[in-house]
Amino acid sequence: MVEIAPSILAADFARLGDQIRAVEAGGAALIHCDVMDGHFVPNISIGVPVVASVRKITKLPLDVHLMIENPDAYVPAFAEAGANVILVQQEACIHLDRTLNLIREHGAKPGVVLNPATPLESIEEVLDLVDAVLIMSVNPGFGGQSFIPRSLGRFRRMEETRRRRGLDFVIEVDGGITLENIEEVVRAGVRRIVVGSSIFHTPDPTAATRAMLERATHATMIRV
Ligand code: DX5
Ligand code: ZN
Questions:
Q1: 128: annotated active-site residue
Q2: Which of 72, 152, 170, 177 would you call most buried, defined as having the most Cβ atoms within 10 angstroms of its Cβ?
Q3: Which ligand 1 atom lies nearest to the CA of residue 201?
Q4: 59: left (phi over 0), alpha (psi -120 to 50) or beta
Q5: pLDDT (tens digit, 9 = 90+) per residue, 65-111?
């Protein structure tokens, strides 16, 4: 199974409810919420109140991506606001093992995120603690950037490690996904796909979500 997680960073925040209903109708599996603090990344986006509002208008799981310093201080509030998956950046966590356990203790699924320059090996020791490994395919901070092609090799290597160790976390991609590259990332082992601009910056986010899902699902059926 492959999942599309539309990123509301690219949505029109004045019409957020409608925009979320539109992607639900197109088959979105989760709603991806990008939280930026202006320190870990050079941009500021949304926080706990928006996540809590989104929680009220959708039954889909919320995939909350914390691009913030000191995530431990905010994990309880995001869990309370209704986050189902809380993703923390490896680079922001000095005590990553502790942070991932903290997320689970608060009733959410822990995920870890790697920036494009962060070695996959840096999370070897915590792979058995996570439900998701998100490999960034852009440098975080902004929507609408171009996919970094060398990410494909990173997805393949992570998928090999996952199989070798018999683990069942989902491999997730975030950044620069389009209808042109979605099949490649699926063939490289990705099963959860975050999409911002290619869904919300189109005239019909329902149709765009559906097209992404169809193409991604088709790619799971092709053996290479
Ligand atoms: C980047 C964010 C992404 C972003 C993806 O810092 O984590 O979730 O919204 O947007 P697109 O799909 O436009 O690259
Ligand atoms: Zn994100």
A1: no
A2: 177
A3: 13
A4: alpha
A5: 999 999 999 999 999 999 999 999 999 999 999 999 999 999 999 99
Tokens 């979500």 locate to 209
The secondary structure of 106-162 as a DSSP string is TTSEEEEEE-TTS-GGGGGGGGGG-SEEEEESS-TT-SSPPP-TTHHHHHHHHHHHH
Task: Say yes or no: CB of residue 176 within 6 Å of ligand 1.
Answer: yes
* CATH number of the domain within which 187 lies: 3.20.20.70
Q: For residue range 28-66, list pLDDT tens digits in order.
A: 999 999 999 999 999 999 999 999 999 999 999 999 999
Q: Which domain holds residue 137?
A: 3-220
The 8-class DSSP code of residue 176 comes to S
| Nearest ligand (C-alpha, residue 145) | 1
Q: Could you give the 3-state DSSP secondary structure of residue 181?
A: coil
pLDDT in tens, 103-160: 999 999 999 999 999 999 999 999 999 999 999 999 999 999 999 999 999 999 999 9
